[in-house]
Design a protein that fits this description.
Elements lengths: L7 H7 L2 H4 L4 H21 L5 H19 L17 E4 L5 E9 L5 E10 L6 E5 L15 E2 L7 E7 L4 E7 L5 E11 L5 E3 L4 E2 L9 E6 L6 E4 L4 E8 L13 E12 L2 E5 L29
Parallel strand pairs: 10-15
Antiparallel strand pairs: 1-2, 2-3, 3-4, 5-9, 6-7, 7-8, 8-9, 8-11, 12-13, 13-14, 14-15
Length: 300
């Protein structure tokens, strides 16, 4: 089999200048080879139909990710070619990134996997934390908070820096009947260990929430959008189409109105009935996502 390596010049076009400042030509070629392997494995993974075969290959896929991420310089390589199937999100301050994907099983449920690669506060090196999804046994996604070993699994699609923590926007395709959009929180202990969930949501009609969960019918689509200028998180208000279906979230759909969280003094304050009249709104750019049988990362 003939192997063709990209020249450093062509790779340089694909990588941001900040990454090139950290990576040598040899580094770029080295990580590109890993990327090629990961792309091939991802393509195989999503073609498999049998759950057992899928889970076995996924274990190898996770091990390959861990192997490359343990190299400290890997943080500066974007792995852009694999982002069709795997989310690679980096925080704006370059303190951490999340590598994140899911598996769709025959029964319609999704299993979530990933890693947090985070800069250690003392050594400055990027440590690797494998995420362990416990969503199947967690009693309540809204009140569940734990470190990376007991993570409530989902797919993340945006990181928003706050005071001392970060908001993560995510998607959980719960089962064939219901999906969830979430506003999660990640923070870090003094030793660099990532924690998920935090009591920063106020005036919300829930007791002691650690994250916000918006559950709705899998047959519809909703969004959560960040308005950076106003520091608002705007999202569809969902409701049951009939009073007899209240509480059965697999039937909830957008009712045409919007709610939002406003960032105030380190917390997110809940408000209903978002008014976007007579001014530019984050809703202007929202596109309705298309549902896909294959798990894909970008849900927004």
């Amino acid at each position: 089999m003939k192997i063709v390596l990209l020249t450093f010049f062509s790779l340089a076009i694909l990588l941001p200048s900040s990454a090139l400042a950290q990576l040598s030509e040899k580094d770029v070629v080295y990580f590109s080879r890993y990327q090629d392997t990961l792309v091939k494995m991802a393509n195989q993974l999503y073609k498999l139909k049998d759950d057992s075969s899928k889970l076995k290959l996924n274990q190898l896929f996770s091990e390959k990710w861990e192997e490359v991420l343990l190299n400290n310089l890997s943080f500066y390589f974007g792995f852009d070619s694999v982002t069709k199937d795997v989310g690679v999100l980096k925080s704006p301050d370059n303190k951490f990134r999340i590598i994140n994907w899911d598996l769709l099983l025959k029964d319609g449920t999704h299993m979530y996997y990933g890693f947090v690669q985070a800069k250690h506060p003392k050594t400055g090196k990027y440590e690797v934390y494998e995420l362990n999804d416990v969503s199947e046994i967690a009693k309540n996604p809204e009140t569940h908070s734990a470190d990376y070993t007991r993570w409530y699994g989902m797919l993340y699609f945006k990181i928003i820096p706050c005071d001392g923590y970060y908001v993560l926007l995510g998607l959980d395709e719960y089962d064939r009947t219901a999906s969830r959009k979430m506003i999660d929180v990640i923070s870090f202990k003094s030793d660099g260990v990532p924690l998920f969930g935090k009591g920063v949501f106020t005036k919300i009609p829930k007791k002691f929430p650690k994250r916000f969960v918006l559950e709705y019918s899998a047959e519809t689509s909703v969004f959560i959008q960040y308005d950076e200028r106003k520091k608002h998180l705007v999202f569809n208000h969902v409701a049951a189409p009939d009073q007899y279906l209240e509480g059965q979230f697999q039937f909830y759909v957008p009712d045409g109105s919007y709610d939002y969280f406003e960032y105030k003094k380190g917390n997110w304050e809940y408000h209903d009935d978002y008014d976007a009249r007579n001014e530019k709104s984050p809703l202007d750019k929202v596109k309705t996502p298309k549902r896909n049988e294959k798990p894909v990362f970008v849900p927004n």
